[in-house]
Write a structure and sequence with these properties.
The protein is mainly beta and about 120 residues long. It has one domain: Sandwich (Immunoglobulin-like), CATH 2.60.40. It has one helix at about 1-15, and strands at about 35-40, 40-45, 55, 60-65, 70, 80-85, 85-95, 100-105, 110-115. A hairpin with a 7-residue loop joins strand 7 and strand 8 (about 100-105). It starts with a helix and ends with a strand.
């Protein structure tokens, strides 16, 4: 009986370690990764109340070949700092106005690329 609980616990632990990472994921070696911080359009909503809800709009990060690397959902505070391996990326985000912009960014190890 104890052996079965151990096996089930081990399976659950392995499952948890394979979950998608967070914005500041440290699973990639820090000497070969950098960061990007994207300041998208700031939106204010009033969902049937006197209080306003403000957030940064979501955006997508693609490899230079067009493969979706990451979708960043809206942020209710400051924009997230996203860890990425060194390289070139394309970011599609609404930066100015309602239209989406396509921005090329080069991520360098240990540096933060800020897109505004």
């Amino acid at each position: 009986m104890i052996y079965h609980k151990f096996i089930i616990g081990l399976i659950l632990l392995i499952g948890l370690t394979n979950q998608p990472g967070t914005a500041d994921d440290t699973t990639t070696h820090p000497l070969t990764t950098g960061f990007v911080k994207v300041y998208t359009n700031y939106t204010v909503e009033n969902p049937n109340s006197d209080m306003e809800l403000a957030y940064y709009k979501p955006y997508s990060i693609f490899s230079i070949d067009g493969e979706l690397i990451r979708y960043i959902s809206r942020s209710l505070s400051v924009p997230q700092k996203i860890r990425l391996p060194e390289g070139e990326y394309t970011i599609i985000a609404a930066l100015k106005g309602i239209e989406k912009d396509t921005i090329q960014v080069t991520i360098e190890a240990g540096k933060i690329s800020v897109i505004q």
